[in-house]
Specification:
Blueprint lengths: L4 H5 L2 E9 L5 H11 L5 H13 L15 H6 L6 E7 L2 E7 L7 H8 L4 E7 L6 H12 L4 E7 L8 H18 L4 E5 L23 H7 L13 E2 L2 E3 L11 E5 L4 E3 L3 E5 L3 E10 L2 E3 L1 E3 L3 E6 L10 E4 L6 E11 L5 E2 L3 E6 L2 E15 L4 E4 L3 E2 L4 E13 L11 E5 L6 E7 L21
Parallel strand pairs: 1-3, 1-4, 4-5, 5-6
Antiparallel strand pairs: 2-3, 7-16, 8-9, 9-15, 10-14, 11-12, 11-16, 12-13, 12-15, 17-23, 17-25, 18-22, 19-20, 19-24, 20-21, 20-23, 24-25
Helix pairs in contact: 5-6, 6-7
Length: 443
């Protein structure tokens, strides 16, 4: 499909992710979506046809449009997150096709962390399974604004409405317990294209939108524009040239909200206050800048600001703390244990930290909390208490997905251990009494 620059400039951008259990048909759905929306190049389709023919398949296997790794094609599974970019006249899309295997759940966290919508697939023959619940829990934890339940392979259950209705009811009840406000359920057959781009003649009992229709029309609020205004400093620009002898700017991407020239601001964690004297955007001065724009901010006073600092409105400055409570998804093979020494990366700042306590681990089948498990294994979801070596200005994840998140890193080799969301969540345990700091903290 050919879309002009003028048309694209008038459309919105939707980031969405697909998830679901093994063999639920995620890659086939994505391939069908790309193929039927005319978003596949001729040479890509020819390559898929050749690969399908070499495997003895009569029709092109559209899943190969996303499964690009050799191991993925040989095993018929998705291992890595596959990102695809496409557009229709109504909207632009960034799609993350995430794996279904339990051992690759960590990649679903990566793919959904910036998503505004998640499509969770369910095989109509199997219904809601543990991995379906796990992905729903992750979507709820990451506070993905919109969740779509795609009940796939309806052709294998004779397009029976009662089968679809029972699965939709079970999943919606589970999602409600997780705090997901709304679920849009769509019966589909990704293999045949039913209700993916075109409405299905085989399911005339269904009167809702197709998958693409929903993706094109779901409200995209870009709520970051209404979050607490934050600018993590990435780089200090000080050319000290003859043309700019006194220029000192603080560059970064605005994480949320907007800044205006003249705004009183506070630099954290130091707490020094000043006002914005100028904003440079793409080399030109502007009066206002907002979320996701990369800017250079000039301050009225010559104060000490460096990479990792956070520039915030003085009237809306978060408190700094060295004690962080969060819900985490553990993504590394090595377990996270009490006493584990780590690096914590929040925004552009990285500090030393230690895992002070693991109050609970979430049991996905009944959403119960296993108290004080002592460790979190790969793909576990749980609560942690962390002590940092330096104060950090963190927001609650419920208030800001950008400045309320962090990752824990292994200091020995740089491996990402855990993705964390600050504050309470559906998995929040009963308050656990703090132990006295008698464990020999060295900071």
């Amino acid at each position: 499909m050919t879309t002009t620059t003028e048309e694209l400039s008038a459309t919105t951008l939707l980031r969405f992710a697909t998830a679901g259990s093994v063999d639920d048909g995620k890659s086939t759905l994505v391939g069908r979506l790309l193929h039927d929306s005319k978003s596949v190049l001729v040479d890509q389709l020819e390559a898929v046809e050749r690969a399908s023919a070499s495997r003895g398949q009569g029709a092109p296997d559209l899943a190969l449009l996303t499964d690009g790794l050799r191991a993925e094609r040989e095993q018929g599974i998705t291992i890595d997150v596959a990102y695809r970019y496409f557009a229709t006249p109504r909207r632009r899309f960034i799609l993350a096709d995430t794996p279904g295997h339990v051992q690759y759940t960590r990649n679903m966290v990566t793919g959904a962390s910036t998503a505004e919508l998640t499509v969770i697939l369910v095989d109509a023959r199997n219904g809601v399974v543990e991995q379906t619940r796990r992905h729903a829990a992750i979507a709820a934890l990451l506070r993905v604004p919109h969740v779509v339940l795609a009940v796939n392979k309806m052709d294998l259950v004779d397009y029976a409405e009662p089968v679809f209705a029972a699965i939709a009811k079970e999943f919606t009840a589970y999602a409600t317990n997780l705090g997901i406000p709304q679920v849009t359920a769509i019966p589909i057959s990704a293999l045949g294209g039913d209700n993916v781009v075109e409405a299905s003649a085989n399911m005339d009992w269904y009167g809702g939108p197709t998958v693409l229709e929903h993706l094109e029309t779901v409200p995209v609020s870009h709520d970051l524009a209404h979050c607490h205004t934050r600018l993590p400093v990435q780089y200090v620009i000080r050319p000290q040239s003859a043309e700019h002898p006194d220029y000192r700017g603080y560059a970064g991407q605005i994480a949320a909200g907007s800044f205006r020239v003249g705004d009183p601001v506070t630099v954290l964690p130091s707490g020094r206050t000043t006002t914005i004297s100028g904003i440079d955007l793409l080399g030109k001065p502007v009066d206002v800048a907002w979320t996701t724009q990369s800017v250079t901010v000039l301050l009225a006073d010559d104060i000490d600001v460096s990479r990792g600092d956070l520039i915030v409105p003085t009237a809306d400055a978060p408190a700094t703390t060295q004690d962080i409570e969060a819900t985490v998804c553990h993504v590394a093979d090595q377990p996270l244990t009490v006493g584990h020494r780590v690096l914590l990366k929040h925004g552009t700042r990285t500090v030393k930290a230690i895992v002070k306590d693991i109050p609970s681990r979430l049991t996905l089948d009944e959403l119960s909390l296993h108290p004080h498990p002592g460790l979190l294994a790969a793909n576990d979801i749980g609560r942690v208490k962390i002590r940092t070596a330096e104060p950090l200005p963190v927001d609650a994840y419920a208030d800001s997905r950008r400045t309320g998140s962090f990752i824990l890193i292994d200091p020995s080799d740089g491996t990402t251990l855990t993705a964390g969301m600050v504050g309470e969540s559906f998995a929040a345990p009963e308050p656990v009494k703090n132990q006295a700091d008698e464990d020999g903290w060295d900071f």
